[in-house]
Amino acid sequence: MVEKNTFPSSQRRGGAKRRGGQFGDTFRRSSTGASPYRVRATRHPVIKLLIVFLALQLTASAQSAPTLPRTADGKPNLNGIWQVLNTAAWDIQDHGGELGIPPGLGVVEGGEIPYQPQALAKRQQNHAKRMTADPTEANCFLPGVPRATYMPYPFQIVQTSDNVVIRYQFAHALRMIPVNGSKHAEGVPSTWMGDSRGRWEADTLVVDVANFNNETWFDHAGNFHSDELRVVERYTMTSANHMLYEATIEDPKVFTRPWKMSMPLYRHVDKNAKLLEYECVFYLQEERYKNAPFK
Amino acid sequence: MRLSNSRTALISVVLLASAANGQSPKKLQDGQPNMQGTYTRAGVKALEAEPPFNPIDPGEKNPFSVSNREDGLGPYPRIFGQGGNVLRGSQQRTQRRLGIVFPEDRKLPWRPEEEAKRRQFLLEMNPARDLRHVELNSRCALPGLFEGEDGNNPYSILQPAGKVVIVYDYNHTSREIDLNRREHLGKNIRLFMGDSIGHWEGNTLVVDTTNFNGRVAYSREIPYLSEDLHTIERFTIVDDNTIDYEVTIDDSKLFTGPWKVAGYFSRVAKGVESLEFACAEGSQTLQNIFGLPPSR
């Protein structure tokens, strides 16, 4: 059982002695190239025991390494429904609780967002008027990227060989991410959700997102960007039901340097998991216009 | 829709090679016939033999014409209907079935009292009496299976294992058809897009959809269908570039029996991609109709 996970089948047929040789190879790789261990390793009983011990350690760690579900074309299979378990939608930095705002630890690496001085002032203004000015929470507008990822609603990844579509439950936001080597569109209007182009780097889906407008915020706390925002997202499965999500943010109009946020994503494992509808705009209209007409 | 730059010049002369009729489509790893790609749709609107009274018909002599609305809401610009021809290029196509195909007389089997309600509803949409009488497209809501602009704008079909996902060009809409589930969601789950489960019969995808929310329209003339709506759609792969489409609309609250509409999907030229369709983000429609709501 252990070998099945550790070695290709062609190397499993050699029996115990052959496997010992494989472990010896592994051991040798971790020591210096011309070490005398290589000669003595299979002869001295103490060393033999040591090798067995190390081999057990190695196989134990190999056993606990994730076996990722894969699609027919060999890529990690991201198909499914995912969601964060954090409070980044309210504030991507450390924050305490307020009425209707759950407290949480930040998701920004290093803690600080490197605002230019004027931009920091604007962030504070945004924060002051966030109850009505937050484009997403107060107005149900498309949340942009990366905010769509960490809204407190699930999203569904639909993965084929050429495309990855992400269907977000919140406001039925949607991204079509070609993974076919195509380039960003040029000369087209800026967008709320950005223009996404994906590629696989080993087992990580890397998505380059450009052509944003300056309308969306990163969170309900007023963290914002300009139309020069560029986001690089990395989706890396760490187990069958977990992903590491990283987003590098670059915006020379607003920040002094690129910065990064990261967080785990959790798969909905419920047997009947299904993406339902959260029609934010519709519900908001029902509230605002329930007594219409007003003139 | 946008044509990717490098291919813009080519688009007008691209002729999509059409596979001979009867050729089997390639199979995907999970056994599904492959119909992935981007298509425009044609034919899915009423097209009745004797259309029902239409108080919002924008004819010149109709005082209720949408063109006369003070709020400026008129019929959709013709350009929406013409886009598909541009996208498809000059490809020749065989004649396909369009519009109502059942009943054979192409008259919708309205229950008389529901037909009267529908007429009254349409009159109260013009101008909208209240929020309930604003058409859902103007509210940027999910459009259901038929509406959204003229209902025929591009759709992208993706087929991950065990599913068919259809992404609309319109208003970042998408729907999921589950091929592994046999039972619909509980009756208290009500959805604009309904709950779709499907299976393949040869080269035909058969999709059964229920759990609608009683709000989505079939067309401007049929501004709502009821919660009892039950649709059965058949997507039949004809060749590499064509999918025949037929939908049975069964809504026993509004109609005395089911009716069927046919249309078809045509693959768009290569290199065509959708632009973002943001809707609510820039919409002033409700303010224009009703005035500004009291400050929050």
What does this molecule look like?
The complex is a heterodimer of chains A (295) and B (296). Chain A has 295 residues and is an alpha+beta fold. In chain A, 24% of the residues lie in helices and 21% in strands. Chain A folds into two domains: 2-64, no CATH class; 80-288, no CATH class. Chain A is built from seven helices and nine strands. The longest helix of chain A is centred in the first third of the chain and has 20 residues, at 45-64. With 296 residues, chain B is α+β, with helices and mostly antiparallel strands. Chain B has helices at residues 8-11, 78-88, 112-124, 285-290; strands at 2-3, 37-42, 99-102, 155-158, 163-168, 174-178, 195-201, 204-210, 230-239, 242-250, 259-267, 272-273. Chain B starts with a strand and ends in a 6-residue tail after the last helix. Chain B has four helices and twelve strands; from the N terminus they run E-H-E-H-E-H-E-E-E-E-E-E-E-E-E-H. Chain B has one domain (2-17, 25-290). In chain B, a hairpin with a 4-residue loop joins strand 4 (155-158) and strand 5.
Radius of gyration of chain B: 20 Å
Major β-sheet strand ordering of chain A: 4-3-2-1-9-8-7-6-5
**How many individual β-strands of chain B?**
12
- Tally of DSSP β-strands of chain A: 9
Summarize the structure.
The complex is a heterodimer of chains A (295) and B (296). Chain A has 295 residues and is α+β, with helices and mostly antiparallel strands. Chain A contains 7 helices and 9 strands; from the N terminus they run ααααβααββββββββα.
From the structure above, extract its key features.
heterodimer, A: 295 residues, alpha+beta, 9-stranded antiparallel β-sheet, 7 helices, 24% helix, 21% strand, globular, disordered N terminus, B: 296 residues, two-stranded antiparallel ribbon, 12 strands
